[in-house]
Amino acid sequence: MSQHGPTASAIILAAGVGRRLGAADGRPKVLLEFGGRTLLERHLAALRACGVEEVSITVGHGRERIEAEVARLGEGERVRFVHNPRYREGSLVSLWAQADRLRAGGGPLLLMDGDVLYDRRMIARLLAAPGENVLLVDRDIEPGEEPVKVCFRGDRIVDFRKRPEHAHDWHGESVGFFRFSGAMAAALADRCAAHVEAGRTALEYEEAIRDLILAAPHRFGAADVTGLPWIEIDFAADVARARAEVLPRLEDEPS
């Protein structure tokens, strides 16, 4: 059982090509190594430490290598793979590929970007936060259009986008980790399906979440992880920064 009550499960999005990173060997970003462990190994260990056993991974680019890593780790019993053959399109399509899992119901469902190096305390905070639908937010946000902003008016989320449209008091950066109730996860599947059916397959998955937030902002909350170390790996400079600045600060990292 998780700290939140009913047993949670997780979806990890790991299908993308990672064009901006430009890895010479073409490896999926989730297989990048930090401190001798891949991001995928770290994800699975962090989830297990927080009581999350059932994991579904969207794969596409380099799927065989990801499947081989799961086998190497001896995690085949708890991991399910969902193949997205359209992985060169927007990440919304990779989330839509998980529609069956999103609609399966049950306990809380975590949604996680695969290309993040982070302290496992983030998962604990996500599970322990009050409310049914929760976004992780870091108030220490870097300027520019790249970060996805979680925008607040008072304590209510009023926008969720790289380039927000709605007036707000302040914003933080989305970590790319979420917790949804069974009902909201099913609604998310419906929003993804609507975008795909309308041909909007270049969208990122955040747009589907934004639809739900704007429709019912009172049903969403945020867990503050400001001060905990983490980084999303998009560019080569992020890899260097992850190794130099983030890795040494992780709570579960041997000194």
UniProtKB/TrEMBL annotation:
It holds the Pfam family NTP_transf_3. This is MobA-like NTP transferase domain-containing protein. It comes from Caldovatus sediminis. It comes from the Bacteria. Residues 10-143 form the MobA-like NTP transferase domain. Keywords: Magnesium, Nucleotidyltransferase, Transferase. One of its GO terms (molecular function) is nucleotidyltransferase activity.
